[in-house]
Amino acid sequence: MEQLTHSTVRIETTLHDGGIATGTGFYMNFLQKEDSAVPVIITNKHVVAKANLSRFHVTLATGEGLPDTGKHQQFQFADFENQCIKHPDPNVDLAAFPIGPLLNQVQKTGGKLFYIPLKTELIPKDEERESYSSMEDIVMIGYPNGIWDAKNNLPVIRKGITATHANVPWNGKSEFLTDIASFPGSSGSPVFLANIGGYMDNQGNTYMGSHRIRLLGVHCAGAMHTALGEIKIVTAPTSNVPVPITRIPNNIGVAINSKEIFGLEKEVERLIGTNA
Q1: What dihedral angle (degrees, nearest 10) is formed by the CA atoms of 170, 173, 177, 181?
Q2: What's the pLDDT tens digit per position in 143-181?
Q3: Are 100 and 276 in contact (CB under 8 A)?
Q4: Strand 118-119 vs strand 20-30: parallel, antiparallel, or unpaired?
Q5: Distance of alpha carbon 99 from alpha carbon 192, whole angstroms
Q6: Which value, to the nearest 10 degrees, does the dihedral of the CA atoms of residues 187, 189, 195, 201 take?
Q7: Of 91, 166, 160, 93, the residue nearest 123 (C-alpha)
Q8: H helix intervals, the chain
Q9: Domain 1-275 carries which CATH code?
Q10: Domain chopping of the chain, boundaries
């Protein structure tokens, strides 16, 4: 889990209309071979939509290749949306930003960056997903409302459970629901199946002392109800004060099935091959 906190990146964008938005991305190696890979940042299409300028920070590495905590470098990219590769299916809210040129640039200057790229091997196969129960422990790592440890360039970890089975398409889409607090800025966050010290499958088999970390999905939205609210008059010692009363929204998140990442990987291969 300590390594996974270095797998995400806070994405801040300036939109074409001048507005500012934040989202989450995570590092992943596509087209992995023995001596090569295409490194990308994966996020949602709507995180990069209408983004003119993008900024994100990457932690610097020590000479031993460890994170140099508290030291990180900001990178800025113009025309950001058009530099991203989008999933070919319009119904799948995933996009990838190739970072090979960035890494080559840093390497030429003698700098070293520290980040943990996820491997596609973390994505569970269908037969493994079928062994999960409808309620599994999950962890989501990201930047809700843009919140982050700006000093140390670290994200926020949130824990919850799956609200629907991760292998059953929610309403026919390649998605499932999570019972986890999510807010704007969480979009693009990796959702991990996280079993530390043991777990049980849906047949009742117990695996004590075993760890299980899988990339289960990518958070893309929060299921919200409209908080209409009402104005009530509260009697104070000197006057009546109007106070807005609102209902609390639910904390149901929508996550894209991580197997859709393979479709994004194929699109990256089609457009840029292994030369990124």
Answers
A1: -150
A2: 999 999 999 999 999 999 999 999 999 999 999 999 998
A3: yes
A4: parallel
A5: 23
A6: 50
A7: 166
A8: 45-48, 80-83, 100-108, 126-130, 261-272
A9: 2.40.10.120
A10: 1-275
